[in-house]
User: Fold this.
Amino acid sequence: MGSRRDYRSMRSCSGWRRILLLIPVLFLLPHLSSLVDFSSDSATRNDARTIPNKKLDHLVLGPVAGQGLSDRFHCRGTKALNKTHGSTSHVSGAGNGVSFVTVFTVYNTSLGNVKSSNPVSVVGNVTYSKPERSMAVLNAFANFIQVTMPKSNVVILTDPASDLSIQQSNVILQPVQGDYSRGNLMLQRIRSYITFLEMKLEKNEGGINHYIFTDSDIAVVDDVGTIFDKHSSFHLALTFRNNKDQPLNSGFIAVRGTREGILRAKVFLEEVLKAYKTKYMKASRMLGDQLALVSVVKSHASFDAKRFTKPQAFTEEIAGASVLFLPCALYNWTPPEGAGQFHGMPLDVKIVHFKGSRKRLMLEAWNFYKSTSNIPDMLCLVLGSGRTKYDF
Ligand SMILES: *[C@@H]1O[C@H](CO)[C@@H](O)[C@H](O)[C@H]1NC(C)=O
Ligand SMILES: *[C@@H]1O[C@H](CO)[C@@H](O)[C@H](O)[C@H]1NC(C)=O
Ligand SMILES: *[C@@H]1O[C@H](CO)[C@@H](O)[C@H](O)[C@H]1NC(C)=O
Assistant:
């Protein structure tokens, strides 16, 4: 057991890279990275003395990193000292013409004996079984979007056999046929994205609607739809970080909603699917899509991987599409966990990704937001507790 390590963080935008065993026990196939929640309790060697070994089942606030650095977000406790996320995030029109699309599936076989077969956890004063807390994460995902991009909606691509029901005014369920079994999930996710884009090509709904395909364990904390105006010519956008083995994160793929954008994004994803099927079927099932994504990008002759070392947006033509690369630091920021270098949070983070066992923090963050209605203060909570390892 001691050899199990932070497998899930390889899917992350932070700089961890360790492989491990994955013990498939979950019945849910939700915000994908939660499938690999079974990582070790062991902290990194260096910091074993200072970082608690155990995963905690309650919120812990520690010192806020990055204080004193001029380009970082400053907090006093959970009070934000910089004025951020106020200008666009509460504009009532934010999110107009942008949909978030995620893959999420629940089976009633598992829900039937939820209480008996799954341990429960408590967040705030609410008790959740495992499936219930995955639903809570999905709800928090939609709730954050409702707050920061009120005109936006959320499309959940799900197995037609799934028993998902969700009562939120900004959420639409879209069944897509496929094989959503655990071993096939990452492959199916790309397939479902492609099918969804095909549906959009067939049915011209009039007007332009952009799509952002994401994991569901993210909090959108600012109007991310501005990328479509700010960078006017890309067909699709991906997030990158400075990590040699895993420079791209598959948890964020934005597609411009023009016919051309949808078509080129579809062709691009078909390339990724082909690379996955021919090269990475034997790769760990949680990494296949990211490896395939990297392989398509890097196989492009003129692509210079050095561009991943600086957190600056850039555009490249790849597989017939104009691809915008956005830095994870702003568009897919993950609270660091445990030991390691950590220089705090950039001032204008748009998306916080609660990968792996950070999901308790996502629910705590949503609860905190509900009682304060203040996104910057909530980011202080996330930043101040970012080092803690949580239990789910
Ligand atoms: C953020 O707040 C800190 C503390 O008040 C301040 O020193 C820093 O200059 C601010 N940064 C910006 C960019 O406003
Ligand atoms: C799920 O529930 C429906 C209706 O309640 C039932 O017909 C179906 O067999 C169930 N599926 C599974 C896999 O148990
Ligand atoms: C749970 O907490 C919320 C918010 O703090 C509060 O409004 C609610 O009354 C509490 N419920 C119970 C059963 O204590």
